[in-house]
Amino acid sequence: MTDKLHLGHYARKRFGQNFLHDETVIDKIVTAIDPRPGDNLVEIGPGLGAITEPVCELTDHLNVVELDKDLAERLIHHPFMAPKLTVHQGDAMKFDFSSLLRNDAKLKIFGNLPYNVSTPLLFHLFNFVDEVEHMHFMLQKEVVNRMVAGPGSKAFGRLSVMTQYYCHAIPVIEVPPNCFKPAPKVDSAVVRLVPKDKTQRSAKDTKLLNTVCLEAFNQRRKTLRNSLSNLLDESQLKGLGIDPSLRAESLSLQQFIEIANWLYDNKQ
Which end of the chain is less crowded, N or C, counting CB atoms within 10 A of the terminal residue's CB? Predict the structure, then answer.
């Protein structure tokens, strides 16, 4: 598959392009995705097709969302994959993934996400979790660490809370820079996201939950009595059983939900 890297396409910095070429890593990612005939598969940012090609070999149809017009055009006219592909040329951050639903088949989404837009793209994808079976993404290792971090960790933050609100997040594999061309300056990792059932998501307003996280983690060294002072006071925190002298990283996901739900009930 590395020969595809010599077909005249140069990585474009503005799109955050780094093309995966390590066969062992590719095999592990495809095994994690577990593509099968009849699956409703969606790849974000297929690039030169390093993962697209082996997935196509195992299934009968694949949707791909590609921002780069030249790469989208390549896939449309690919001699082997084109019959199995539906190519959507456009920005994944604006794409309506629910438009790809068919019958009762939930989406299996995967991709090597551009590191410069990975967090806002993840938040966009969280809007569609009820239509998703699972997601697998290559991301900057630091981002994956934040997604899976628990309370008390320095990596625990807004991305941790919101990811874990919507999904079970499981690290799959770490990927060093030499697995890409051009090699990025950071380590990468693949994360598996399995959406939680609606019954496990108890926030009354997810935008409000996100706002609480933004305020709480905006200045991490501040205690909750200060970082959340725009939303509720010390006595109200104590009423929720939360110590105002704690910092945001000490709270659990459930406590963030309880704060957001209290605000929903009392600040409307």
Answer: C
Query: Which residues sit opposite 42 in a β-bridge?
Result: 63, 109
- Please indicate if the annotation marks 18 as binding a ligand: yes
CATH number attached to the domain at 206-266 = 1.10.8.100
| Residue 47 assigned to a binding site | no
Residue ranges of the chain assigned to CATH 1.10.8.100 = 206-266
- pTM here? 0.90
Confidence at 18, pLDDT banded by 50, 70, 90: low
Known binding residue 20? Answer is yes
Query: Homologous superfamily of 2-198 in CATH?
Result: Vaccinia Virus protein VP39 (3.40.50.150)
Ligand-binding site membership of 205 (annotated)? no
CA distances from 92 to 16, 121, 247 (A): 14, 7, 35
